[in-house]
Amino acid sequence: MSAFVDGRRYTTDRATLLARGEYDGGPAWMALEKFTFLFRGHDGRYFAQFRMRASGNVHSERYWIEPMSEVDAIPMYWELPDHLLPFVEAFTPPQAQRPA
């Protein structure tokens, strides 16, 4: 997925997936499924991709991206149950991870 937000492009295909999770919530009549994916872009910017749909209805899917600061990304990382990278690696700037 790719989206422009506030004049900047965010692309999940070129970003590193840090954590993800699923949230089933809402009133019983609503039965929403919400999936959250936390990314770090190749330039070090953090963003979340959200997918929401009515339970069992694939035609009701809605996707959106929300940019966030590192300060906002850290609590989201801990709230999501599936961590694809350890915390230190997820929040070390990409330039600092390259071998000298």
Word description of this protein:
The chain is of the alpha+beta class and 100 residues long. The strands form two sheets. A five-stranded antiparallel sheet has the order 6-5-4-3-7, covered by helices on one side. The longest helix is centred in the last third of the chain and has 10 residues, at 70-79. It has helices at 70-79, 87-90, 94-97; strands spanning 2-5, 8-11, 16-25, 32-40, 46-54, 62-68, 82-83. The protein is globular. A hairpin with a 2-residue loop joins strand 1 (2-5) and strand 2. The model has no long low-confidence stretch (mean pLDDT 81). It has one domain (8-92).
Helical content (DSSP H or I, runs of 4+): 10-25%
The H/E string reads EEEEEEHEHH
Outline the low-pLDDT stretches.
none
The biggest sheet amounts to: 5 strands, antiparallel
Structurally, how many domains make up the residues? 1
Q: Averaging pLDDT over every residue, what do you get?
A: 81
Total strands: 7
Strand order of the largest sheet: 6-5-4-3-7
Please indicate the percent range of residues in DSSP E strands (runs of 2 or more).
Answer: over 45%
Count up the helices. Answer: 3
Which class best fits the helix and strand makeup?
alpha+beta
Radius of gyration (CA) equals 15 Å
Describe the global form: globular
What is the CA-CA span between the terminal residues? 33 Å
